[in-house]
């Protein structure tokens, strides 16, 4: 599994497939991206995740050679593809990579075969090589029987499979994906997610995947880079990003909407056990996850990790009386807002047992589930 340090930077690993260093991209006078630096180990599925407009596609397009950066270095394999210092910008078609877009960009007037053959034809492969390449690529996406079908007679999911087959047909070293599943309906998107992951594994190809969809990123990636406003907020394995968000932005993006701020009680904290005293005087126990303590700090606690009880639970730490302020039925889950000494906390829990507004209950949270953030966010 990829560690944060490996994902972060500097291409020290022997098998680095892609290295991006101090990359900056502007649109006119506006800085859209950067500086960002990351490296992608060979064979990995690497994901750029973040909200719309954070610079994911622009970064991907610069790696593809479709956007000219303002500075930095992009290296694929052993070769610099872009380097501002060397005044070098290798054209997209010479970078040995293939890209799959959100709009499938397949040609409706051509057959499936001709669509998939395109990349092989422009590389002037022989007829035998083209036929073998198309056959192999269609088999990969389970579309063997469709070679002679006009592309216009395919469903959305089939068109996206053809786009994938076309991207894989000439065995690129690197595959780039720009939100390739976002035009598909939810069910198909879920299936294709798994297929894509298996395809990437079986080909062993290095890939960079762009998405704003957290679940998609968690399900598919070896390493995730979370971007915000053109910069990297955090990089790490899906497990690490989900369980140990480093900043308030990442905590919010991965669904930890409870941020609890307070004064660090150095007298009660030791090692990774950290204790904050809130403005309301509650002592909240949390986990520093190796992060440094300042005087003030913020803990992030995921909504699904807060528990409600009608009787006071056993134990002393992180148990408080609260009042139910609001209860919203969401199907599988209920979202419950509680009043915690004048502040609001949100809990998501099984919708089976309802709680009435105004009811006095007890809230508890395992200290391990309260993760220290590096930035001191505005919070409870
Ligand atoms: P994302 O892929 O994360 O949604 P983008 O990389 O598309 O974000 O965009 C990053 C920023 O650059 C945004 O502020 C966007 O408005 C701006 N941008 C993207 N493309 C262009 C363009 N062709 N001209 C001007 N600004 C652009």
TrEMBL record:
Protein name per its UniProtKB record: Fe3+/spermidine/putrescine ABC transporter ATP-binding protein
Organism: Candidimonas nitroreducens
Stretches assigned to the ABC transporter domain: 18-254
Any GO BP: quaternary ammonium group transport
InterPro entries (alphabetical): AAA+_ATPase, ABC_SmlMolc_Importer, ABC_transporter-like_ATP-bd, Mo/tungstate-bd_C_term_dom, NA-bd_OB-fold, P-loop_NTPase, Transp-assoc_OB_typ2
Key words of the record: ATP-binding, Cell membrane, Membrane, Nucleotide-binding, Transport
Gene Ontology CC, one term: ATP-binding cassette (ABC) transporter complex
UniProt-recorded Gene Ontology molecular function terms: ATP binding; ATP hydrolysis activity; transmembrane transporter activity
PROSITE patterns: ABC_TRANSPORTER_2 (PS50893)
Pfam families reported in the protein's UniProt record: ABC_tran, TOBE_2
């Amino acid at each position: 599994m990829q560690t944060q340090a490996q994902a972060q930077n500097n291409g020290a690993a022997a098998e680095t497939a892609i290295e991006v260093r101090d990359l900056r991209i502007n649109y006119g006078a506006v800085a859209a991206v950067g500086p960002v630096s990351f490296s992608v180990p060979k064979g990995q599925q690497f994901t750029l995740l973040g909200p719309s407009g954070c610079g994911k596609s622009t970064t991907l397009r610069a790696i593809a050679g479709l956007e000219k950066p303002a500075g930095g270095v992009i290296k694929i394999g052993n070769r610099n593809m872009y380097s501002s210092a060397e005044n070098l910008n290798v054209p997209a078609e010479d970078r040995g990579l293939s890209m799959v877009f959100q709009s499938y960009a397949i040609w409706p007037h051509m057959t499936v075969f001709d669509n998939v053959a395109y990349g092989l034809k422009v590389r002037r492969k022989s007829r035998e090589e083209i036929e073998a390449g198309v056959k192999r690529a269609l088999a990969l996406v389970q579309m063997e029987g469709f070679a002679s079908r006009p592309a216009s007679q395919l469903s959305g999911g089939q068109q996206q499979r053809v786009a994938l087959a076309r991207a894989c047909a000439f065995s690129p070293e690197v595959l780039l994906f720009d939100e390739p599943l976002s035009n598909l309906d939810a069910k198909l998107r879920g299936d294709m997610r798994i297929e894509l992951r298996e395809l990437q594994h079986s080909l062993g190809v290095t890939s960079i995947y762009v998405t704003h969809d957290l679940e998609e990123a968690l399900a598919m990636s070896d390493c995730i880079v979370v971007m915000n406003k053109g910069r990297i907020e955090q990089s790490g394995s899906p497990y690490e990003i989900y369980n140990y968000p480093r900043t308030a932005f990442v905590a919010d993006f991965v669904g930890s909407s409870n941020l609890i701020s307070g004064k660090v009680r150095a007298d009660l904290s030791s090692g990774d056990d950290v204790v904050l005293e809130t403005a309301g005087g509650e002592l909240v126990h949390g986990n520093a996850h190796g992060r440094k303590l300042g005087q003030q700090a913020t803990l992030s606690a995921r909504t699904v990790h807060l528990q409600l009880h009608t009787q006071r639970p056993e134990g002393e730490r992180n148990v408080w009386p609260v009042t139910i302020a609001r209860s919203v039925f969401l199907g599988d889950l209920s979202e419950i807002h509680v009043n915690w000494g004048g502040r609001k906390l949100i809990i998501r829990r099984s919708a089976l047992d309802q709680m009435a507004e105004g009811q006095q209950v007890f809230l508890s949270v395992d200290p391990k589930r309260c993760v220290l953030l590096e930035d001191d966010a505005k919070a409870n």
